[in-house]
Amino acid sequence: MIDSEAAELLTRAAAFDNRTIGEADATAWAAALHDLPCDNDTLQAVARFYSAPAAPGETGRRWIEPHHVRTHRAAIRSERLGTTIPAYEPPAEPESGSEFTRRRRAQLTAIADGRLTPVPVQQLTGGPHSRVARALEGVGDMPADDQPYMPADFRESIGMAAAPPELRIPCPKDGCRALARQPCKTPRGHRRATPHQARTDAARGAA
To answer: Which of 181, 148, 176, 141 is nearest to 164 (CA)?
Structure first.
């Protein structure tokens, strides 16, 4: 923003607060808002400041300052972007990373300016690729009863004791009811070092 543009902005503010404007005022405001253009959003920021409802306890005449312009202008532009990330519009030809960055920034700027209507990111539809679907088959499935999690020959090869025969069946004791291949538990839910006697007896009867 240059001095002449700042003078235009101050003229808009003077319509609301009847301030007097001099060259020094325009120079000071141009320095404070040097990185902002005097565009429609900047002018609308002045109108928004004076049209906002009075805050609790607010009395007297309002007096806009440069930081008010900056804050309201940013809010106006953020509202155009919306609360969701706008979808990216890719070019017809492949682009590099730096080209994507420049194009993305240009699109977001155009949306904030009001020159481009944002399109929300669409929800992905359809299932995974057939190769991915095949790779996921069986993931999370429990092994069958005749396929223990750790085969006996593997347990023996690493020096682990064989699984107790009681673990082949669920525990019938009330308060435990541990599933097959799961250790019995105490009334407080802790793991027992040995199966319940009822489970041992049931395993002997099933043998």
So the answer is: 181
pTM of the model: 0.49
Helix, strand or coil for residue 138?
coil
> What does the block give as tokens for 63?
């007096």
What is the pLDDT confidence band of residue 34, given thresholds at 50, 70 and 90?
A: very high
Summarised one tens digit per residue, pLDDT across range 78-134 is 888 776 678 878 888 888 888 889 988 898 888 888 888 877 777 777 777 888 877
* Long-range pairs of 99-108 with CB within 8 A, sequence gap ≥ 24: 108/81
Q: How far is it, in rounded angstroms, from Cα 202 to Cα 204?
A: 5
**Separation between Cα atoms, residue 75 and residue 82, nearest integer Å:** 11
Exposure class string for 23-60: b at 16+ Cβ within 10 A, else e: eebbeebbebbeebebeebbbbbbebbeeeeeeeeeee
Amino acid found at 24:
A
The number of CA neighbours under 13 Å toward the Cβ of 176 is 22
Q: How many CB atoms sit inside 10 A of residue 1's CB?
A: 22
Q: Which of 179, 172, 148, 165 is nearest to 207 (CA)?
A: 165
